[in-house]
Predict the structure.
Amino acid sequence: MSRKFHVKKGDNVIVIAGDSKGQKGEVREVLTDKNKAIVSGVNLIKKHTKPNAKHPQGGIVDVEAPIHLSNLMVIDATGKPTRTGRQLDEKSNKSVRYSKKSGGIIK
């Protein structure tokens, strides 16, 4: 059974806790089984790699590590971090996410 999270792939988010606090980025992937997400440009770690097609020399590469969903907040259309809620859309009769701060729908 799939769970519904406050963060989805493609959302702009800000990190609210941890070493990367204050950094913003776009969610590239949500790891539902671990309650974590990979955010572009956030929570970078050094990874030692063997030579391969992408890195012929091998060496040390910066990689984005997963960050827990509880440390992320969605940025709404106004550009401010907000909590998200769910409400029924009258037109399509489907559940949509909305910003609790501004009241606008989050795509």
